[in-house]
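MODEL INPUT / OUTPUT PAIR
PAIR INDEX: 1
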Amino acid sequence: MTGIVPAPVARQPWQMLFPLFVLIGFGALVLFSAAAGSWDPYASSHVIRFGVFLAMAFVLSRFSRELAMFFAFPIYIVVLLMLVAVEAIGFVGGGSQRWLDLGFMQLQPSELMKPAVVLMLARFYATLPIGMIPTWRALIPAGALIMTPVALVLLQPDLGTSLAIVFGGAMVMFAAGLPMRWFLGAAVAAAVLAPLAFFFGLQPYQQQRVFTFLDPESDPLGDGYHITQSKIAIGSGGFSGKGFNEGSQSHLHYLPEPHTDFIFATMAEEWGFVGGLVVIGAFAMIFRWGLSVARASSDRFAKLVALGMTATIFFYVAINLMMVMGLAPVVGIPLPFMSHGGSSMLTNMICIGSLMMVHRWNRKAPRTGLLR
C-alpha cells in the first residue's frame, strides 16, 4: 500500500494517464457536440474504443523485453502483408484504397505500420554492434525496412501516412546515433528532388492541396474551403468560445469533417483559446512523460522504442494542428485521442502501451547510465 492507495494503482504512470483521460473526455464532449447533441454515432463509440484499447495497452505493458524483441519482426511482416492485401482486396473509401473490411471494423493497416516500423528498427539497432553504426550496414537495411511499406502506402495513395512512417523511422535512426552528415545529406537531396517529386510524384489532387495551402483565399468555395472554414471556426471562438454545443460552423455543416480531421476547429469554436490551451497542455504532458521514459532507459532497445513511439504521436499532433490552422497542407491525419476513428485510436494506444511497457522495464532494471 502507498498510503490509502493500493500499490498496483499507485505504480501506474498517472503523469501520462491523467492528461490522456482529459483528452479522451474532452474529445467525447466535442464529438457529442459535432453530432448535434447526441452520443451516437461518434462519442459513445469513441469512449468504448478507448476502453477496449486501454485494456490492450495494459496487456502490452506486461510484455518483457525479450518478448517484444521476438515479436518485432513477425509483427512487421504481418502488417506488410496486410498492406499488400489492401492493394488486392482493400476497401475503397473517399477515392482511396486504404482499408481492410474485417466485418466489425474497417482497419487501415498503414496506421499499424507506424509503430511496427519503430519496433522493427529498434530491434535492428539494438542487435547491431556499436562499431557498425557509422557504416552503410546501419543505413541500407534500415532504409529498406522504411521504404518498402512507404512504397505500398503511396500506392493507396496516402502521402500523410507515408510521411509519418518516414518520420518515425528517421527519429529512431537519429536516436541510434547515425552520423549527422547523413541526415544533412538527405535533407539537401530532398530539397533538390522536391520539385521533381511535386510535379511527377504527387497526384493532381495532392498538388492542388499544396497550391491551396499557399493561397487558400484564391478559391474559398472550392479547394480552399476546408482551410477557410477551419480558420473561421477557430477565430470565431475567441478567448473562451461560443459555449458547449453552440458551434455554428459544425452544426450548420460549414466545417467539413468536424468529428475527425478538423475536430480541433470544432473544439476551438466552442471552447476558444482556453480549450486550445487545455488540449495542447495535455499533449505536452504526454510528450514530456514519453521523453522522460526514454531518458530513464539504460537499455538501447528500450530507449529507441520509447523515442520512436513518442515521435509517432508527436507527428500526428503537430501535423493535425498545423493543418487546421492553415500552417500545413490538408492531409488525412486525425488528432490523437480526440478524433473519431478506430485505426488511429488503435495506433496511438499501441504507442501508449509500448511506452508503458518501457516504463515498467525502467522500474525493474538497475540504472547503469549506459546503452547496451
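PAIR INDEX: 2
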Amino acid sequence: MFKELNPLLHSELRLAIMSILISVEEADFLYIKEKTEASAGNISVQIEKLSEAGYIKVEKGFVGKRTRTVCRITQTGEMAFAEYVEAIKTYLEK
C-alpha cells in the first residue's frame, strides 16, 4: 500500500532545500541558491513555507554591511524528511 506523500515536501524546490539541509549543519541563502539554481524570490518563498511548518530555522544577520540568511533543519524537519523518504520507498517497492 502506498503512503501519502507530504505535500509540503513534494514540491521540487522545497525538497531540494530540505535535501541540502539534511546533509549539512547549516546553509546560507547564497549556497542554497547556487545548489538549486532557483531564483532568489522563489527560494525566499519556499524557505518561508518550510520555516512556518517548523521544518527549518532561519536566522538573518549581517556580515559587514551585507545581509546573511542562514538555514538549519530542525528535528521536526528531519522527522518529516525521513517520513517522506519512507513514503517514497512504498512507491518503489515491487
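PAIR 2 NOTE: The first strand starts at residue 27 and ends at 28.
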